[in-house]
From TrEMBL:
Record flagged with keyword Transcription: yes
Gene3D superfamilies (UniProt xref): Periplasmic binding protein-like II (3.40.190.10), Winged helix-like DNA-binding domain superfamily/Winged helix DNA-binding domain (1.10.10.10)
Stored SUPFAM superfamilies: Periplasmic binding protein-like II (SSF53850), Winged helix' DNA-binding domain (SSF46785)
InterPro entries noted in UniProt: HTH-type_LysR_regulators (IPR050950), LysR_HTH_N (IPR000847), LysR_subst-bd (IPR005119), WH-like_DNA-bd_sf (IPR036388), WH_DNA-bd_sf (IPR036390)
Gene Ontology molecular function terms on file: DNA binding; DNA-binding transcription factor activity
Species: Pluralibacter gergoviae (Enterobacter gergoviae)
Protein name: Transcriptional regulator
UniProt GO cellular component terms: cytosol
Family (UniProt): Belongs to the LysR transcriptional regulatory family.
PROSITE patterns: HTH_LYSR
Length: 302
């Protein structure tokens, strides 16, 4: 390839790919329809391949177009982040930081980190996305999320990302006060209990499913599955369901008078890590957040 695509061509391609219509994309970009069509033809000539299939109903991506679209999204996100970081360094403009957090981080160290971070950098727009790591990884890989914190399955570390271990958290079985099994010490004695288990294809709960596969197979009532902390806690508080949570998660919810921890010691601990893109350089804002995160995790009583 003699020439590389121009930024304007990438912007035009992305708009049309997202809209599925040249007319709609032209309105979004504030250009004429013929001008946008000419830009797309020039891009296809530069790449030496057809990117769109055109019909009376709009445009769809060819196989080459789909592959190019994935790369284009990442390239444009990197350009935005690069320009924004330079502005932050040179002109102290507002800037942005998007972090993904597991519920344990949100419930424990994040309030302190956020207060310190915003006091030092009030101009930065801080956006938080909460979820288990499997739901946060796509944003990390696409560049939309700068940094994520969650539990890692040591047997199946995620690919395409950088990983920094932060702390290890013990997990426990919890129930409402007065639960019939509140004093049970043997996990396998709970095979006939009602269970609510977090749903995840990554991290601790996936690791737990493998570690306790024999127990899981013996559960007589099919467990409820959820990725919502609120749903999980409400089911435990309002019924006879049991669930598995990090030991440090119950205290911040101020439920010590409503929940009990079963004296079971058969659960493996979870390793929590910071995760960021392998392809993208970490921004200055993300590095500052990670510094605060390390310090907070070191001093917290997990």
């Amino acid at each position: 390839m003699k020439y590389l695509p121009k930024t304007a061509q990438l912007q035009a391609f992305r708009a049309v790919a997202r809209r599925g219509s040249v007319r709609s994309a032209a309105r979004e970009l504030g250009v004429t329809q013929p001008g946008l069509s000419r830009t797309l033809r020039e891009l296809e000539q530069t790449l030496g391949t057809q990117l769109f299939l055109r019909s009376s109903e709009g445009v769809t991506l060819t196989e080459a177009g789909l592959a190019f679209s994935r790369r284009t999204e990442w390239i444009m996100e990197e350009l935005r982040r690069a320009a924004e970081e330079v502005e932050q360094i040179n002109y102290f403009t507002h800037g942005r930081l998007t972090v993904g957090l597991s519920s344990l981080i949100s419930l424990t160290v994040f309030p302190q980190i956020a207060q310190t971070y915003k006091s030092a950098l009030p101009q930065v727009t801080l956006t938080v996305r909460e979820g288990q790591l499997n739901s946060l990884l796509p944003g990390i890989r696409s560049g939309e999320t700068d940094l994520a914190i969650g539990s890692i399955d040591p047997m199946r570390p995620p690919e395409g990302v950088m990983i920094e271990p932060l702390f290890t958290a013990p997990f426990c079985v919890i129930a409402r006060k007065g639960h019939p099994h509140a004093q049970e010490r043997d996990l396998f004695a709970l095979k006939d209990a009602r269970w609510l288990l977090p749903e995840s294809t990554e991290g601790y709960y996936h690791h737990l499913q493998n570690e306790l596969a024999h127990f899981y197979r013996q559960i007589s009532v099919t467990p409820l599955r959820t990725d919502s902390v609120i749903t999980g806690m409400n089911m435990v508080l309002g019924s006879d369901y049991l669930t598995i949570v990090a030991r440090a998660a119950a205290s911040p919810l101020e439920m010590a008078d409503k929940l009990v921890t079963l004296p079971i010691s058969q659960l493996p601990a979870a390793q929590y890590c910071a995760v960021w893109s392998q392809k993208s350089a970490m921004t200055t804002n993300a590095r500052r957040f990670l510094d605060l995160l390390r310090e907070a995790c070191r001093s917290y009583a997990w």
